[in-house]
Amino acid sequence: MTYILAIDQGTTSSRAILFDAQMQRVGTAQREFTQHFPQEGWVEHDVEEIWDSVLNVCRNALETTGVSASQIAGIGITNQRETTVIWDKATGTPIHNAIVWQDRRTAETCEELRKAGCEDDVTAQTGLLLDPYFSGTKVKWLLDTVPGARDRAAAGELLFGTIDTFLIWRLTEGRVHATDATNAARTLLFDIHKGQWSSEICDLLDIPQAILPDVRDCAADFGSTSLFGGGIPILGVAGDQQAATIGQACFQPGMMKSTYGTGCFALLNTGTQPVESKNRLLTTIAYQLDGQKTYALEGSIFIAGAAVQWLRDALQIIEAAPQSGELAAKADPNQHVVLVPAFTGLGAPYWKPDCRGAIFGLTRNSGRAEIARATLESIAFQTRDLWHAMQGDWGAEADVILRVDGGMSASDWAMQGLSDILGAPVDRPVMQETTALGAAWLAGMKAGVYPDQAGFAETWDLDRRFEPTKGEADRNAAYARWQRAVQATMAF
């Protein structure tokens, strides 16, 4: 039993990655699934399609590598966070599509709660802000909106979970209703200090605690599955950004990672004591092992790689994402086009859910290249917003080195631009599948196949360090243009 199977259930696709005893990837399968947009600002997923995609990729990964269930020591699960599912306890059937983390339908509810003076108490317990991003108000919407849901929940007939919880339930054929501390910490319902569901917030949102899952360590017993030809224990679970933090071996306070996928999520390890943000960042659980919580400051950017998809799918100025850097490199250096990609609102540190995107600085000579450059630069500018906020909260100087991962981190142009805008080094690891690797390490460590934290940290290997090449004056002038553009966008 020398293999670990990692299930990486993301926002646009599900993947299964098989790792060997040396934590090397030996097999991968991936399947995209449909994005549903019932109304402006609403985003949903068909939960059964997600489930089918997970089964498909797991079976494909095993078939293509010839690895059998008897050779797998454990399964690790990482998932899109905050995405909300409620299902029938008896049948496992969802009562509605999953409401995705990007969904903004509960913005009005959040505003009403904020005006009622509830946010300070919610933040004190959960480390989060009142924003439709999180699961709590999505659960309330489902219970209030789906006919009969609230009565059925009160009668103990329904269960709630984020995607990890639903997958565990299905994989164990209804035997285990559980999540881990990192996913629980993103629901708006979990007291990250006491390590338990908050009865006060559940009462505030009228959510019966009976529908909530059991909360466990990231490396723990989550039951076993027999759906792949034999019994395999599920031993590791972490939300995708926390899994990437683990996969980047950011185990020491002050270490920071940023993942560039559909959105961008930066986490700064702050150790065993939570740091209250004064800059509208989130205080969250980075991981929990052996009952010990390690906390983080997190900044969430809603649109990163999705902006490159916008170039490809909506504007059709590129055919594939890697072309964005090639096109941006051809842009006129004397033009200063700025894109604010607030397609689904602005995340940290602004938290403006109703804000929408805008482009500034267009001239008659602005074209495809300038828009491509502005798109990639917007990701660097948003990261600098988070960087400054974290420094303000953490009190660290600018000598922090950022570890990056995610699809966009493969772009040399984008990562060099990031280093230039930050004025700091950016480290890209050899193993860029850090999210799946983090989930695999949790399961493998629990199974006794992989080393402990210190041993795992020693395996982290640098692919390339990007050093700043832009002068401070140019860097600050570019960032000032970004700040003016953001203020103008929010005022529109």
Provide structural commentary.
- Helix 9 crosses helix 14, helix 10 (305-313) runs antiparallel to helix 12 (368-394) and helix 12 crosses helix 13 (412-422).
- The longest helix has 27 residues, at 368-394.
- Helix 13 links the parallel strand 21 and strand 22 (426-429).
- The protein contains 16 helices and 23 strands.
- The protein starts with a strand and ends with a helix.
- It is an alpha+beta fold.
Low-confidence stretches: none
Helix coverage percent of residues?
25-40%
How many beta-strand elements? 23
The chain-level mean pLDDT equals: 92
The assigned structural class equals: alpha+beta
- Strands of the biggest beta sheet: in what spatial order? 17-18-16-15-21-22-23
Question: What's the total helix number?
Answer: 16
Multimeric organization: single chain
Short description:
The protein is an alpha+beta fold.
What is the fold's blueprint, element by element?
Layout: E1 3-9, E2 13-19, E3 25-32, E4 44-45, H1 47-65, E5 72-79, E6 84-88, E7 98-99, H2 107-115, H3 119-126, H4 135-145, H5 149-154, E8 158-162, H6 163-171, E9 178-180, H7 181-184, E10 190-191, E11 196-197, H8 199-204, E12 214-216, E13 224-225, E14 232-239, H9 240-247, E15 256-260, E16 264-271, E17 282-289, E18 292-301, H10 305-313, H11 323-328, E19 338-340, E20 358-360, H12 368-394, E21 402-405, H13 412-422, E22 426-429, H14 434-447, H15 453-457, E23 462-466, H16 472-491
Parallel strand pairs: 1-5, 5-14, 9-12, 15-21, 21-22
Antiparallel strand pairs: 1-2, 2-3, 4-7, 6-8, 10-11, 13-14, 15-16, 16-18, 17-18, 19-20, 22-23
Helix pairs in contact: 9-14, 10-12, 12-13
